């Protein structure tokens, strides 16, 4: 028999806990699920469950994130769609997941029905979730902008996500309510409403960047937008706590190639919530627009803090906001505090622009 290393044993046990928890949450729902039963299902001790996950809610978020990230990837959508086509395809992918009046409640529906109540129950989860929804709106807005250059479309994306999340909640409470075709049509029509969506030339609060000359030796990291691991290269690397997660847009709007690194003081619970939020959006975005037509942006959930440490940010919290600019494999500028993402992108020295 091959003897497993400690890391391999931990990974195997974590997978067994996730599988057992998925069955328990699907069968009983979040509130009635029992850690003891999950441990029995996994053929592990209660202590082994808690050594992998700090609590039941953290385990619940991890189960949902794992399922969302492992969902089959669809066939490649058209490479050059119009912005209305992108938004319509995104909305169709979203509403296709909603239960119909004739559906019996499936396992996936039972698994996900307690997500928003659990998020809303605690400020500890509600505030990061609000920022993660802003992140999703930026990601969808940027994808729309590639199909419709010259406009900022984050407000349109916010309106579409508001419509679709509302449709999800009504579908859970009243399956069959609302005509899916009308929901898709309404989302696509948002592009014609002329929603005001200006972006300031300078952020209202801007810290100053300082010159640096430090090595850049980051570990490989998984891009949440593609599911692929790579080593971040030149560009702007933003390190953002989950209370400031959406601030990476400040660097994106300068035209820089951006790696947005999300960190948190509670990786056991909130890192899984971040992974889930992005994977849920990616599942629909994959059916709407092909990766080459998306922004030059990488989004990483840095639960271990290793990538943040490589950028020189060794102590992280949900309020962290820092950024570095990397050129030629070295860190040439640093900034911390409000406006750090913009400051690192444009200074010190001449602004670097890739002509977004």
Features:
alpha/beta, Arc Repressor Mutant, subunit A, two-stranded antiparallel sheet, Glutaredoxin, six-stranded mixed sheet, 356 residues, globular, 14 helices, single chain, disordered C terminus, 3 domains
3D architecture notes:
The chain has 356 residues and is of the alpha/beta class. The chain folds into three domains: 6-70, Arc Repressor Mutant, subunit A; 83-192, no CATH class; 210-346, Glutaredoxin, CATH 3.40.30. It is 48% helix and 12% strand. The chain has 14 helices and eight strands. A six-stranded mixed beta sheet has the order 1-8-7-4-5-6. Helix 5 (83-95) packs antiparallel against helix 10 (180-189) and helix 9 (154-173) packs antiparallel against helix 10 (180-189). The protein starts with 5 loop residues before the first helix and ends in a 10-residue tail after the last helix. Residues 349-356 have low confidence and may be disordered.
CATH top-level class of the largest domain: Alpha Beta
Shape: globular
Largest sheet: 6 strands, mixed
| Proportion of residues in helical segments | 40-55%
How many structural domains in the coordinates?
Answer: 3
- Unreliable segments of 5+ consecutive residues: 349-356
> What is the radius of gyration?
21 Å
Number of beta strands: 8
Q: Mean pLDDT, as a whole number?
A: 89
Structural class: alpha/beta
Name the strands of the widest sheet in spatial order: 1-8-7-4-5-6
- CATH architectural type of the largest domain: 3-Layer(aba) Sandwich
Q: How would you spell out the order of helices and strands?
A: HHHHHHHHHHEEEEHEHEHEEH
> Could you tell me the strand content as a percent range?
5-15%
CATH topology of the largest domain: Glutaredoxin
Distance between the termini: 55 Å
Count of separate DSSP helical elements: 14
């Amino acid at each position: 028999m091959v003897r497993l290393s400690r890391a391999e044993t931990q990974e195997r046990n974590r997978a067994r806990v996730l599988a057992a928890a998925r069955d328990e949450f699907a069968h009983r729902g979040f509130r009635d699920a029992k850690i003891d039963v999950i441990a029995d299902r996994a053929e592990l001790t209660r202590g082994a469950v808690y050594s992998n996950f700090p609590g039941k809610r953290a385990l619940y978020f991890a189960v949902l994130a794992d399922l969302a990230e492992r969902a089959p990837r669809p066939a490649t959508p058209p490479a050059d769609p119009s912005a209305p086509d992108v938004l319509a395809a995104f909305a169709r992918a979203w509403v296709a997941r909603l239960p119909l009046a004739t559906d019996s409640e499936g396992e996936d529906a039972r698994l996900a029905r307690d997500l928003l109540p659990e998020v809303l129950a605690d400020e500890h989860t509600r505030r990061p979730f609000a920022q993660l929804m802003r992140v999703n709106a930026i990601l969808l807005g940027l994808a729309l902008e590639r199909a419709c250059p010259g406009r900022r479309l984050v407000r349109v994306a916010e309106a579409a996500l508001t419509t679709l999340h509302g449709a999800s909640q009504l579908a859970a409470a009243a399956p069959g309510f609302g005509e899916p075709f009308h929901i898709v049509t309404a989302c696509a029509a948002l592009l014609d409403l002329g929603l005001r969506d200006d972006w300031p030339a300078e952020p209202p609060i801007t810290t100053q960047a300082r010159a640096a000359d430090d090595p850049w030796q980051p570990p490989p990291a998984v891009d949440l937008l593609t599911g692929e691991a790579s080593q971040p290269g030149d560009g702007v690397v933003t390190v953002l706590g989950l209370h400031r997660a959406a601030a990476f847009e400040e660097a994106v709007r300068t035209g820089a190639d951006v790696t947005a690194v999300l960190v948190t003081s509670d990786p056991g619970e909130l890192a899984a919530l971040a992974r889930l939020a992005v994977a849920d959006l990616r599942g629909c975005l994959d059916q709407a627009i092909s990766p080459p037509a998306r922004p030059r942006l990488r989004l990483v959930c840095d639960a271990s803090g290793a990538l943040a440490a490589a950028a020189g940010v060794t102590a992280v919290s949900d309020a962290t906001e820092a950024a570095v600019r990397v050129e030629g494999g070295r860190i040439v500028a640093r900034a911390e505090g409000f406006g750090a993402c913009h400051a690192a992108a444009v200074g010190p020295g001449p602004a670097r622009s890739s002509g977004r």
